[in-house]
Structure formats: C-alpha cells, structure tokens
Amino acid sequence: MLWAGGMKLGTFEILLVFIHASAACEFGPFPYRVTGIVCRMTKPAALLLNQETAQVIQAAFRNARFPNITGERSMRLLGKVAYGLTNIQVNDLSIEQSEVELKEDDAIHIAIKNVTAVFKGTLTYGYAGAWLLQLFHSVDFEIETSIDLQINIKLMCQKDQVAADASDCYLSFHKLTLHLQGDKEPGWLKQLFTDFISFTLKLVFKSEVCNEINSLAQMLANFVHDLAENFVQDEDIKLDISLASVPLIKANYLESHHKGLVLYKNYSDVFTDSVFSPSLLTESRMLYFWLSEHILNSLASAAFLDKRLVLTIKGEELQALFEMEDTEAQRKAVQMIFQDISYNNSVAKVWSLAHPQISVHPEGTVVKSLVAVEVSVFPAGEEPLIVLYMEKEVTVTIQAAYAEKKLILHPSDSRIEFKTFDCRADSSGNDPSIRNFLQTMISVVGIPEVISRIETALTSLLNSKGINLFEIRNPEIITRKGYAIVQLDFSFPNHLLLDFLEKKL
C-alpha cells in the first residue's frame, strides 16, 4: 500500500517507534512474555508525520558536500579539453510529492517524485588548439535538475538501540541542464561540456546525496532513541526501553515491543509473564501505548525506595482537611487532637511504610498501601509533641484521564483499615469519636488530597518531558486485567525536527 503526501516526506519519523529490527538482535523463544511496553503507530499517524519531514530530505541536499569535479577529453581541431567544476552548492530546492510503502520484509520504501534543484558553482576550462594556442576560461554556472529519489530503509539492531540503514538509494534524473553565465563562447561549447560532465555529475550527486540521507537517518534514529530514553527517566529512576522482539510492519500500522524493566540503583526487576498480544490493540486511533501492570508496580516500588512517597501538610492546607465540616464531632476531635494550638504551629506527615501494590482492572487501577500518618504540634516555648500517630492499610481504585494538558486522577472507591492508632488525648483508646472522625476525614478529604498532589506532580513531570508541546486529541486511558492502554490522536510540533536539524547540521 502506498501512502502519499503532496510536497512532504515522512519516512524518518516512522523510525520513531522502533528499536532493533534485525538478526543482529537475539530474542528468546517467547519474546512477548518479556514485553512491558508496546507502541503502535497507525497509518493516519504515519501520514501526519509524513507531512513534517520534507525538511529532512531538503537538509540532505543542502548539507551534502560536493567534491570538485575535473575531467579531460581529446577533441578534433580543439586538442585536449580540460574542465573543472568547483564550489558546487544547492539552491532553490523543492519536493513535489512523496510516497511511502511498508514492505513485509521490514523495509520502508520511499519514492520521492519531482525533486527540483539548482546547483551553482564555477566552471573552469581550457583547451590547446591544433596551432598550440592555449585558452583558459572561468565562468559561473547553474545546473537545473529534476530528480526522482528511491530509498529502501532497513532497521537494524546495534548496541541495544536502533540503527537505520538507508544505503539502498537511487536517483533518477529527468532533467540536467547546464547554463553558463556571462560566456560569449558559441552554443556548441555549452553542449560539449554538458555531454562531458553529465554522467559524472549524476554519479557525484547520487553518491553525496545518498550518503547524506543515510547519515541523517542514523542520526535521527539516535535522536529518537535518546528522546524516548529521556522521557522514561526521572533522576535515578528509569525504564529499560530495549526491544523485547522484532517490530511488526503491517499495511496499516507499525508496532514495537520493549522490555520496560525499571532500573533504579540496586533494585532488580524481572518480568517474564506479560499478557501482551497484538490483538489487544486496534487500528482506529493514531497512536497506542500498551503498559503492563508490572511496570506500574515496579515504578511504585522504585518511588518508595527513592523516598518519594512522603507528603507534608501544614497551615491552611491542614486546616482545610480537619475542618471539612462544622459538626459537634468535628469540633470535639479537633479540640482533643490540637488542644487549641494553631494550625500554623502544626504539621502532618504522611508516608508509605512499604512498597505499594498496584493491580490493573477494568474498574481502574487499584493501589494498596500501608500508610503512616503523624501529626505534630509546636507549642510556644515547648518541645514539639506528637499528638497523633496511626498506621492504616488504604486501598483505593483510581481512574485516570488526560485533558487540557493535565493528568486527571479520580479516586472512585476507597477502603481504610486501621492497624495502629495512638492519640495523645485518648491514650486509653476508649473514645471512638476521634477514630470515627478520622476515618471519615481520610476517606472524604485525605485520600483526594494525596491523589491531587500526585496528579500535580505527575503532570509537572510529563510537561518537563515536553508532552505539553504536542496537541493531543481525545486521549483515552483504558484499563483491563493486567494492563493499561493509552490511545490518542495528536499533532506533531514542527519545531522539534527543526531544532534537531539546526543542532546537527
């Protein structure tokens, strides 16, 4: 199937979703069993990216370094005619049309039609006539060309990241016209040089342009790998995005499978029971990400080990939690806990005591964690006092969404079980009013507050990776038993590729 895009070319972004695709990489007999992350890009996404990368081919022409061309030929009456073309540069480049075909043998075939370009430089020539008369001339020239370009890109695995081989490259010239400027020589001389240098020019242009395209393809592959690697890393916590199996190239989509193991200091992550199958994803949206439950669980464990699951609440925020309702039970509990000490002189600390357990179900993502809460007050002129300490097992179901460039986490169900409860105002534990109040307060206000803090932190992290630069449309986060799917349509930020080309060329 051919995917056409007028005036544009989108081959190189197609490489974006693939890591490693050749016999150089060895995979086990059941590669899907170690798959933690899957990326599927469908035909509409490829067409969109196809509209953004004519600049890559243009950069290949502009950045090609053409060598000086020299030649010599004996002519009757004129003697030996020698010529040299120097300072060859490309001007006025345009691309009329490009077509992309995905072949089942993992090759990406690109047909670029009607590339028009003007090559400029200096022509120096001389000849010795039959009467030993030597004449030498130097004149500026222009070469008008019309070219079709054919490229077959192979994806290979080298050192655990993508390597793109675009050396299978052909140029077909429909037009190659030489113009000499300011020259008073007869027209037969221009025809003579056109005949001399036409064949040589074609070989030089093919060599230099194709070499530059191959180099750009490899640089873009490295750029995309580095971009993806940075996206899945935050300080000491990161994901291994090595391929778990060879990518699939179908008529309607491209798909890559990654290990997704969590890497954190001495933390050891092993995953061998993935439930992924290509049939779990459809083709109706532009981009899909499949995430194993194991990844989410391992990321939560790494966050716990990195001491990130700690929250401090004080001042007005603490007051808002404890004064969620104005009732007799609330006033009694606040009086017993804080004993008329201002919220500004109080602080609550919430932290996870063990690795959170995360499981994914159709109802949402279920988080189960043993949590400690400690409330301290700071009486004027006295030592700080711990007035409340409790440990509780909290289970909460969270439904996630993404809208207006923000991650939205909605707790839909929660259960709380107290394991330890120590209140300084009720050391005997005979008064159930405080515990009952706290049970209600944690369910109604406390858990949503913690979820809100996590929501803000994750949104900030995603934006720091540049996700807010994309125009994401109609994103959906779907949960099933053992995995989650993120599916969306998007627009590509033009400046991303331009920034890359400006830095590299």
Question: How are the elements arranged and paired?
Answer:
Blueprint: E1 2-6, H1 11-14, E2 37-42, H2 43-50, H3 54-63, E3 69-75, E4 79-102, E5 107-128, E6 134-158, E7 161-180, H4 187-231, E8 233-234, E9 237-240, E10 243-249, E11 253-258, E12 261-263, E13 287-292, H5 293-305, E14 310-314, H6 315-322, H7 328-338, E15 346-352, E16 357-361, E17 364-377, E18 385-403, E19 406-423, H8 432-464, E20 471-480, E21 483-491, H9 494-504
Antiparallel strand pairs: 1-4, 2-11, 2-13, 3-4, 4-5, 5-6, 6-7, 8-9, 9-12, 10-11, 13-21, 14-15, 15-17, 16-17, 17-18, 18-19, 20-21
Helix pairs in contact: 3-4, 7-8
Brief characterization of the structure:
The protein is α+β, with helices and mostly antiparallel strands and 505 residues long. The chain contains nine helices and 21 strands.
Structure description:
With 505 residues, the protein is of the alpha+beta class. The protein has nine helices and 21 strands. Strands 1, 3, 4, 5, 6 and 7 form a six-stranded antiparallel sheet that branches. A six-stranded antiparallel sheet has the order 10-11-2-13-21-20. Strands 14, 15, 16, 17, 18 and 19 form a six-stranded antiparallel sheet that branches. Helix 3 crosses helix 4 (187-231) and helix 7 packs across helix 8 (432-464). Residues 1-23 have low confidence and may be disordered.
Helix content: 25-40%
Count of strand segments: 21
Secondary-structure-derived class: alpha+beta
Shape: elongated
Round the mean pLDDT to the nearest integer and report it: 82
The portion of residues forming beta strands comes to 35-45%
Q: What's the total helix number?
A: 9
SSE succession: EHEHHEEEEEHEEEEEEHEHHEEEEEHEEH
Q: Ends: how far apart?
A: 33 Å
Unreliable segments (pLDDT under 50, ≥5 consecutive)? 1-23
Biggest sheet statistics? 6 strands, antiparallel
CA-based gyration radius: 33 Å
